[in-house]
Amino acid sequence: MDYRVSAQERAAFKRCRRQWDYGSIHRQRLQSLDPPPIDLTQAIRDALAVYYYPGMWDWHSAIVLPLVRKAFMRSIAAAPPSAQRMEALDLGTELLERYFEWAPSLDDFGPLKIETDVEVLVPDIRESDRALCSADGHRVLYTERVAMVAADAVDEYWVVVHRVVADWQNLEDLLLDEASIAACWAWEQTYLGMDVAGTIYNEMLCPPPAALGPAPTRTRTGSDGRGGYSQNEPSGGGRALQQAERPDRLESRPSIPQRVRQETAGPLRRTWIRRDRAEIGSAAQQVGAEVLDMLDAGLTLYPTPSPTHCPDCSFLAPCLATAQGADPTLDLASRFRQGPAAVTYEPRLGAGGGGRNISLPTKPPPSPWG
Prior knowledge:
By secondary structure, this protein is of the alpha+beta class.
């Protein structure tokens, strides 16, 4: 059986090795008996998967927006009843309604694929021409679910990341966001020949500011409804993604493209960051180095205390017991159960769907990148 490392497991390893050891499917694979906290970001992402679903991108908003709301409600309803669930429901509903009002003034792309699972071989950093193998000789794979890949007016491809935030993230943090760069690398390895121009960060303030003023009445592209670039097939159509770059679009690209483009509209901020070949290549090497550490049987499992993630960690009690020199076995047995031995992915809308053909203007508009 292949040894799979998901993007979520890799993030846990980088955040805290002790937490990773408790929860990893390749280690102790412990799961809390308490219901998990409501993930508002995931619920919003489920809703936006419907909002940007390529097969419905040309549909009238009066048809699509009720489906978007339903997708959000379905995600929230999966959690057991609680005060937290009601709070998340109210916050998320308000956030989505503001998104419907303001996003068309920023959307100047067309969605190609949403919620797509990618799976690539992890390179062996010790030998440049080999992929990494586990101790028992199985392939080591890196897996990721990419929220969306979109195309702009000149047929450049962008990995889109949706985030619900309390404050705008620092530009420096976005520039150094190695996780999204790794997603670009994994996408390119899955869709060979489809080079990614960079990442788009779609940030949503939650809760939205109280005083937003009137929402824009025009879309960024001049298209009706939700804006963006329309599809030219009513249903089921599409172009081969690897051959989507048309000569006239290539000629319209700027010779010296801008590194960062950032715009704010009400409770939304859109940040476009170009990623060069060196960045994407270094992400592959970093994934290889980290996974090699994960495979090390003698790895030191030290904790990484932090006020940002410790308070919400389900393993806080046994971690404190260990830090005080006590045996956490009883606490682990009473609070946790052993989870499945393999990653299980819940099917999501578009996870296996194809790309769509984007009908762009006959003459591409001037590039916003200069």
